[in-house]
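Lecture notes, unit on protein representations.

Consider one protein chain, 114 amino acids long.
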Amino acid sequence: MIVESLQESMDQNLLLLRDELNSILDPVTNNKMNRSQNLMNRKSPYLLLRRYNYPDDPNPLTTYETKTLSRLINLCSGPANTTLHINYYLSRLKQQEEILNEEILKKFGDRFKD
């Protein structure tokens, strides 16, 4: 249930982000960025952080309002922070699992013989 609600929240955030981005970026610039996405090489850490290339000769933003730009930044950073938080705690759980498995095998390992 928690995973489903988190996924739904992140999907909703993505839709809001796309709407906000489309209201700020010039359509020609947005189209250039979408066409030059780094979708194939997802193993490179650099490409995982930079999915979009800088467009050649971008048109100006359609707005420079601080409130609008701040909302866009918050919509971008929210899912990234959530993902980092989840990955951190998953790695901690993995470490705890390994320690518990080791202790169980030390104490009860002879019972698991084939």
